[in-house]
Amino acid sequence: MPMSSRTISPEIQYADLSQQGDTAQLGMWVFITTETLFFGTLIFTYYIYRILYSHEFDVAARDAVLWCGSANIGILITSSLTMVLAINAAADGRRRAMIWWLIATAALGMCFLGIKGYEYNLDYNDKVVPVANFEMKPGEAPAGELFWVFYWVGTGLHAIHLTIGVGLVLYMLLWRIRRGEITPDYYAPLEVVGLYWSFVDTVWLFLFPSIYLVGRS
Amino acid sequence: MTTIAIDLPRNYATEENTIVSWLFTKDHKRIALLFFASITFFFFIGGFAATMIRLHLATPGGLLQPSVYNRMFTVHGVMMVWFFLIPSIPNTFGNFFLPMMIGAHDLAFPRVNLLSWYVFNLSGLVLLYALVMGGIDTGWTFYPPYSTQYASGYVFAAALAVFINGFSSIMTSLNFVVTTHRLRAPGMTWLRLPLFVWAMYSVSIVMLTATPVLAMDMFLLCVERFIGVGMFDPSRGGDPILWQHMFWFYSHPAVYIMILPAMGVVSELISCYARRPIFGYLGMVMALMAIAIISFFVWAHHMFVAGISIYSAVVFSLLSFFVAVPSAIKVFNWTVSLHKGSIVFDAPMLYALGFVLLFTIGGLTGLIVATLAVDVHVHDTYFVIAHFHYIMVGGTVSAFFGGLHYWWPKMTGRFYPESWARFAATLTFVGFNLTFFPQFILGYLGMPRRYYTYVPAWESWNLLSSAGASILAVAYALPLFYLGWSLLYGRRAGPNPWGATGLEWTTPSPPPTHNWELTPTVKLGPYSYNPEDGSYITQDGVKHAYV
Amino acid sequence: MDQYHWVPFWPRTAALNAVVVNNLYIAELGLCGLIIAMVVGMMMTFCVRYRQGSTVSRADRVKKTWHWEITWTTATLVAFLVLFCWGASIYIWLFKTPPGDIEIYVVAKQWMWKFQHPGGQREIDTLHVPVDKTIRLVMASQDVIHSFFVPAFRVKRDVVSGTYETIWFKATKTGTYQIECSQFCGVQHATMKGYVVVMTPADYAAWLTSHGIRESLALQGEALFRQYGCSGCHGANSTVHAPTLVGLYGSIVHLQNGGAVRADERYIHDKILMPNEQIPAGYPSNVMPSFAGQISEDNILKLVAYIQSIGSQEFSR
């Protein structure tokens, strides 16, 4: 480590730093459990309607922009890789590598959001925003509008989560790492952010096929 | 006595006494008191609504406009469920005593704990906004399509408040689970945990698993209400019954979120005041966990007449009977815990005994509503109202007051006035039964819930119920006065005034900021009371003679 | 009208299943009373005998508890299972609607109950039925969820918007019994009441005639069938590729997606409002327009009654 890092002492309720780090990770795992149930409920509801109106949903889903969704899944999986590499670098004390991998992660996250925004723009012009700007195309049924409700709610909530993820990575870069609070001895905060990042990534792994792929064959 | 002149030893409350130090505290004990202030405020709003309901129903003619009455029972339900009952015991006593009972210096994430309080108040403010702007009249269950299309009022704001409130639940319960896993003192094995800690642990698991489902549910309701996409509107392809499934998937476990902490408190009280070990500790632990798990598989018993298939109704009825088994085990264990004890009838014990009786009645009438054929008749009538009030008010609120008196000396360093407290406990029991027992009869007679008027034949029972409610109101307001008085003039309490065995009683009263200078070492399980000579051993292994 | 001379303890019992439910309820009250007596008895005894200061010996407390736990787990489980089986068997009997002697259509709306008899007689908030006959109600809601509840019959069923719910009862005593709405449905929820008037068969026949033999529901439905243009496609002379509706009611419809469904009231109702769901095999989708929002639940019921009548004609032939 080239820089002088501050000595970090555990908070009062912990015996040592490793206990503090373990606890932080457990906390994130528990939080991810609740998030899984949150998105799980949405996807479950979505599939109930998907089964009920399979034909209508299939027709409606053909208007979803496939290349945007596919590009985004590639971007997100890559960003999970860079996140893990950043954590590896932190564990080995390669500070420069860690910073660059984190910058790459944040950049990929923002890239995802950019594509998503562009896709939203296409969707708006395609008139598939329920109630606000919606037009039934020939061959479509009213129940197809429900598909778009789930599309906007699902991708919207995911985008909010990803924005928070980018915020957390930037917080790590601009605050915790700059102040020297991430050391090879104690990099649990980075691992916690990494867990969250991978979770948001995983949500897309479920949303992508549900929205873009099912019924397209 | 020169009580007021004596300086208290440095403790969590006096360490630094500025408003900022309270608002930005990370100390779990201070946050517990902040929560205490918030939920008391909401309790009295919900209580005010309840008072108006009972005043109105004293006669068939009533005194409120129908729309006002409908707003009253909605406020009562929403306030009491999400702003009092669910946070009541966990966020106050759990926050204060869970770390102390397991020998920790604080919760695992103190900042998250503080944030939970702010989020809780934020959700309360959103709800108050909805009330001030004109209220809501959907009932606490928000059934669409009424709530989404037909209801006037601020349904969106109210649903949003419940959504935000969920974050507070999740933050607090996450803290409890992680703390229980990671911060137990050396020697504090899982089977040495006091039952209160087990109750907090099991309730946190339920909260963590159920709340996200409600969050998504409320989120979709907000979307539906706000832009009207027809997700739950049958004329546009939606399914209103699906919403009920999702709602009860949270809200049935929520009933156990309300009662499990109470069970934990009562186990502490009965063992301490009967001066003997709790009967069947392991059975009690397993019953808590069994209730927590089975509670997730009974939700559709709220929908036996809503048009679900006959066979799913049969399965859910069977599962509902199963969830009653561990509850029955607990009742028997509490009762037998009195056997060969040396029972002291202090106010907390009176509340605890009252709890056992009322919970038994509530639980047994739960069997009646779980029986399919009878439920067809009593569903959505006052029978159900009486049943769940016996559990939530007779059960949880009694346990809350019992715990409040029991831990009062620890929290404040002062005794409450014993005879006043015994009087209030007795009054609660009498007032409660007068209020809610007549409602069983009304329910079987066929009086549906949420009626602002009723046939004259039902007047006597309603009048009796309202009379009981006025007694209950006095019994609930009394502690506010004498506990307030005791803060200034109460007798000073030592570290362990009741001779209890939990680790929390090995600290000074009130405890210092980080509970212990040195992390204590735990030598044995809880409840080492000996009724033969009155001696007891606290969990750090020190044997005390009974005074 | 429910009338009591003294404080009421018990609702009137005026239907076949009400007696059955009463028996089960009384048995449950008995069991509850027994358990409460046991708990209170033990508690009182222990509280007095083992109060602090009493000199009774506290030695030899029960230390091994598991066999006690197993005992009362088993005991409660067995008792509960008995109650469960009892309750479930009645419920299955009650919710497997038998073919009714008389079928009455009910439309619930804020805040009234509308009844339509098969002969075309219509009533609001009052329902006249003969005694000792199985009455089958087919219920729809025009707006929010309501719940049809007659305490004296111990029957209740939510009337969920967007679907049909059926319920049946067999009144055993003549008289007037209260109908309640037990699902909160808006400001005047408490006034959404009505009465069931149970009459002797002779009185019922007299009532039917005095209320005029209007056009039967099915006839009214037939008029609507033409008025809404249904006959243009589904009629006998139609050239459009649409299924004939003769003989449809009660038959099994094979669907495009491979499933099959029985063409009951609910199916016909849903097809009128959402024609592109559950498309029968061999027919194209997106041909029939949806009638959602253009036709009231009352009129749908008449159409259903008409389609039912041509179904049963075919069936009886």
Question: Could you explain how this protein is built, in words?
Answer:
- The complex is a heterotrimer of chains A (217), B (547) and C (317).
- Chain A is mainly alpha-helical and 217 residues long.
- Chain A has a single domain (17-213), classed as Four Helix Bundle (Hemerythrin (Met), subunit A) (Up-down Bundle).
- Chain A contains six helices and two strands; from the N terminus they run ααααββαα.
- Chain A has a two-stranded antiparallel sheet with strand order 1-2.
- In chain A, helix 1 crosses helix 2.
- The longest helix of chain A has 36 residues, at 17-52.
- The model of chain A has no long low-confidence stretch (mean pLDDT 91).
- Chain B is mostly helical and 547 residues long.
- Chain B has a single domain (23-544), classed as Cytochrome C Oxidase, Chain A (Up-down Bundle), CATH 1.20.210.
- Chain B has 15 helices and three strands.
- A three-stranded antiparallel β-sheet of chain B has the order 1-2-3, with no helix packed on it.
- Chain C has 317 residues and is of the alpha+beta class.
- Chain C has two domains: 9-50 and 97-214, Sandwich (Immunoglobulin-like); 217-316, Cytochrome c-like domain (Cytochrome Bc1 Complex, Chain D, domain 2).
- Helix content of chain C is 38%, strand content 20%.
- Chain C contains seven helices and twelve strands.
- Chain C has helices spanning 16-49, 66-95, 201-210, 217-227, 230-234, 265-273, 297-316; strands at 102-109, 112-116, 122-124, 126-130, 134-141, 146-150, 155-159, 165-170, 175-181, 194-199, 252-254, 260-262.
- In chain C, the strands form three sheets. A five-stranded mixed β-sheet of chain C has the order 3-2-1-5-8, covered by helices on one side. In chain C, strands 4-10-9-6-7 form a five-stranded mixed β-sheet. In chain C, strands 11-12 form a two-stranded antiparallel ribbon.
- In chain C, strand 6 and strand 7 (155-159) form a beta hairpin.
- Chain C is elongated.
- At the B-C interface, helix 3, helix 5, helix 8, helix 10 and helix 11 of B face helix 1, helix 2, strand 7 and strand 9 of C.
Topology of helices and strands:
The complex is a heterotrimer of chains A (217), B (547) and C (317).
Chain A: H1 17-52, H2 54-61, H3 66-92, H4 95-125, E1 128-129, E2 133-134, H5 144-177, H6 188-213
Antiparallel strand pairs in A: 1-2
Helix pairs in contact in A: 1-2, 1-5, 1-6, 2-5, 3-4, 3-6, 4-5, 5-6
Chain B: H1 19-23, H2 28-57, H3 66-101, H4 110-132, H5 146-150, H6 155-182, H7 195-227, H8 240-274, H9 281-294, H10 310-336, H11 347-370, H12 372-378, H13 382-412, H14 418-445, H15 459-489, E1 528-529, E2 536-537, E3 543-544
Antiparallel strand pairs in B: 1-2, 2-3
Helix pairs in contact in B: 2-3, 2-4, 2-15, 3-6, 3-7, 3-8, 3-13, 4-6, 6-7, 7-8, 7-9, 8-11, 8-13, 9-10, 10-11, 11-13, 11-14, 13-14, 14-15
Chain C: H1 16-49, H2 66-95, E1 102-109, E2 112-116, E3 122-124, E4 126-130, E5 134-141, E6 146-150, E7 155-159, E8 165-170, E9 175-181, E10 194-199, H3 201-210, H4 217-227, H5 230-234, E11 252-254, E12 260-262, H6 265-273, H7 297-316
